[in-house]
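Standup, Tuesday
Yesterday: got the pipeline producing structure tokens again.
Today: sanity-check two examples.
Blockers: none.

Example 1:
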Amino acid sequence: MASDDSGHETPTRRDYVKYGGAVVGGGLIAGCARQSGAGSTPVESNAESEATESDTAAADDGYSVTMSPVGAVEFEEPPETATVHDATWADTLVGLGHGDAVLSLGHPELYYTGYYDQLDGVSFDTSELAALYNDGLDKEQFYELDADVQHLDPVNIGYSGWSGWSMDDIEEIERNISPFFANRLSRAHAEPSEEFDGEYEF
């Protein structure tokens, strides 16, 4: 941590990279952990009985997931709701049978559901989702949604300028609501800003 002129501690680039990486994995773990409930049909596996004991231990100890650029993030229990901007994360959650966890999309009206229409028993209703983008990101909306995890790449929104946010805004949301977990720049084949000096892993 570094201190500004007022003595307030702010995260440095290295602090953030070390803290960061667990939200997408958190969403995936949530999907896997919740797959056996709420009407979902788990995939049969020969290893299912052996996994029961370790799964119980994981539930007791919580979960830790790691991914660049956010680092390791711990959850006491699987996240049940997620703030989402890009369709990628919504598709992932729907694929895991947890589309109901998605609270938002950048542009819900543009989200294409035609592929889901071709799959028996698969649907995803976007009509009630919050529109996350409107000439930037509204921080108050994140408080209103109060998601268990933020599936947005913090480097992408904290340094790119399109969101209107700084890394201080990201730290505030993480501190008061829940962590960020996504790696947007890898999917976009885009380079991170120079502040990361090669620490952003693809």
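Example 2:
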Amino acid sequence: MRTTTTTPRSAALAFLTAPVRPQTYRNLAYLALQFPLGVAYFTLLVPALAFGLGTLPLLVLFGLPAVGALLLGVATMTVDRAVTGALLPVELERHTATKSLDDGVVDYATDLLLDPGTYLSLGFVLAKFVVGIATFVTLTVASALVGVAVTAPLLYAHPMANYTLPLPSWLGGATYVVDTFPEALALAAVGVLGLFVTVNALNALAWGLGRATELACRHARVLGPAATAPDHA
């Protein structure tokens, strides 16, 4: 991933301009895709692995499902790499097979089975199921809290609205009801600050996931022309 020198001034500018930077919305799109992609990977791979591993002891006769399941894992890693590269400013290496089908099916399957990158790809995309759930919860809760706070001046007096805020235990553990316009404005101001904090936190989360993908792609196998050494996309 590209790195730049950070100064206090540039850090403050980055914090304040985060909501209007185009990359922020690409980051948010990337985070929003983690849940559906994670579910899709899990749904495709778990049944394939269950069936494929069940045939592994009979590899000579019925091992093609196991090879197919591993190849599916590599294919999903290829998709995930493409999505990451399209939305995040990352530099992803491409680790492909050293054998092609032109070398024969047996040689290609052997290369697939013996390549540690095959299993790294499989584990990485399966982990996206957990990552996707965590990201979905984070996005949902953060956007709901910020949205409710920012719109307080418009909604606080609505009969269906309930702006009751729980206070921490060190303040007595009671609740505080926002039922006046000045209080709603104060809550909205807190919401605007929360918006900046949330957007920057989500940018940091996207950076972290992109960095994890960047590191994994150094060794994780993806589909592509056979090569003797990894090359850069």
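Quick observation on example 2: Confidence is low (pLDDT under 50) at residues 229-233. The beta strands are 93-94, 164-166, 175-177, 231-232.
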